[in-house]
Specification:
Elements (H helix, E strand, L loop, with lengths): L2 H13 L23 E12 L2 E3 L15 E11 L4 E8 L4 E4 L12 E16 L4 E18 L20 E21 L4 E8 L2 E11 L2 E12 L2 E11 L2 E10 L5 E2 L2 H6 L6 E2 L4 E11 L4 E10 L5 E2 L8 E12 L2 E12 L2 E5 L2 E7 L2 E13 L1
Parallel strand pairs: 18-21
Antiparallel strand pairs: 1-3, 1-23, 2-22, 3-4, 4-6, 5-6, 6-7, 7-8, 8-9, 8-10, 9-12, 10-11, 12-13, 13-16, 14-15, 16-17, 17-19, 19-20, 20-23, 21-22
Length: 381
């Protein structure tokens, strides 16, 4: 089985979480660690979501317009062997992210609301091969996060009985300073090279931050505090195996501990009586399955499907999605020591309901989708 088909499995697998549960984007794949010899890769993705809803109780019948901005993702990796048993990899990705921007002037209750969450991670991994086809891998991850939000509909009316309302009607906004944290990665893999078989299980630890936060609201302007944020722990099971000459079956399961994730700045919690700026009720399981086929010495193709269960309940107005289904296609062109893989993925976003204060449901989001396009260039040397 050639590495060209395996390259497409890696691209489609990493794309499977580009619009997944929570604010998952990269899937934290470590497939570069299993490449042969000395290897480097660069990847770029562009995602165009269309996520819109209609008010139910808050602003009945009013349409939100598309509330998700287009975004790009970038990744890179370098892998090399130390000796026959030891190898290492350095991987850069953008594991978590959000880009929310409700249109203004629509009359929708959340009009003008915006939110961003950015992250960058650098992971250093070491792998040790054992004589029985098993290997173990592990390392550290250094990760940076930064977030901000403006939510005009979260405010407070004048109230002479509440002396803490110093700026009645002021819209809520928050800015979290850039913070860096450290976590770890640990895993095990089994390989059978003669049939291109590999099964790997990788644990990614949570990473904790104390984020210096500045809030503006009806309760005060420029109020500083510290917000505790933990990006979630996760577990990736990835597999591939040859099933016929020049044909590869691949897939994976990713569990992410989103039920333990929350962002709850002090003023926001006070204004919403204990509400969270962003949180999730359930953990998320993301599944993918695909097949790749080498056509000739230079071209290979692959297709995969993805699935994430809808959990029900209410979703956040900053992330009104619940599960998804997807279809992805990819092709790889290889020549000498270079391989170029391109892929496109269509995502059918699961329907969701949101709430706002006592308005439940506040809005319904239905029939939404996204298109993702990715390119990966790999070099062996």
């Amino acid at each position: 089985m050639t590495y060209r088909v395996i390259a497409m499995a890696a691209l489609l697998g990493s794309a499977s979480t580009v619009h997944a549960g929570g604010i998952d984007r990269s899937g934290q794949s470590i497939t570069a660690l299993f490449e042969s010899g000395r290897y480097a890769e660069f990847s770029l993705g562009a995602v165009s979501p269309n996520t819109s809803g209609v008010g139910v109780q808050a602003t009945p019948g009013v349409k939100s317009g598309n509330m998700t901005d287009n975004f790009f993702t970038f990744g890179a990796a370098y892998k090399a062997d130390i000796n026959d048993q030891l190898s290492y990899a350095i991987i850069y990705d953008q594991p978590f992210g959000a880009d929310v921007a409700y249109d203004t002037g629509t009359g929708y209750f959340a009009a003008g609301s915006t939110a961003t969450f950015d992250s960058d991670a650098l992971t250093a991994l070491l792998r040790y091969k054992m004589p029985n086809n098993f290997s173990v891998h592990g390392g550290i991850r250094v990760q940076r996060i930064e977030a901000s939000a403006l939510i005009p509909f979260v405010t407070a009316a004048p109230n002479p009985n509440n002396p803490f309302i110093t700026n009645p009607g002021a819209p809520y906004s928050v800015k979290g300073d850039q913070e860096t944290g450290v976590g770890y990665v640990a895993g095990v893999a089994y390989e059978k090279p003669e049939i291109a078989m590999r099964v790997s299980l990788t644990y990614n630890s949570k990473i904790s931050y104390d984020v210096d936060t500045t809030e503006n609201s009806a309760l005060g302007m420029g109020v500083k505090s510290t917000t505790e944020v933990d990006t979630p722990q996760s577990l990736n099971l990835e597999f591939q195996t040859g099933i016929a000459a020049d044909t590869l079956l691949f897939g994976g399961v990713r569990w992410t501990d989103w039920s333990s994730f929350e962002i709850a700045p002090q003023q926001y919690a006070t204004l919403t009586r204990g509400g969270k700026l962003l949180s999730y009720d359930d953990d998320v399981y993301s599944y993918s399955l695909g097949v790749g086929r080498r056509l000739n010495d230079t071209w290979s193709v692959a297709a995969s499907i993805g699935y994430e269960k809808s959990e029900g309940g209410f979703s956040s107005n900053l992330g009104p999605t619940d599960g998804n289904k997807s279809l992805a296609l990819a092709a790889t062109y290889s020549r000498d020591n270079v391989k170029i893989t391109t892929g496109i993925r269509y995502i059918n976003i699961g329907d969701a309901e949101t709430e706002a204060g006592l308005a439940s449901p506040a809005a319904t989001f239905e029939d939404n989708d996204a298109v993702a396009i990715g390119v990966k260039v790999g070099f062996t040397f």
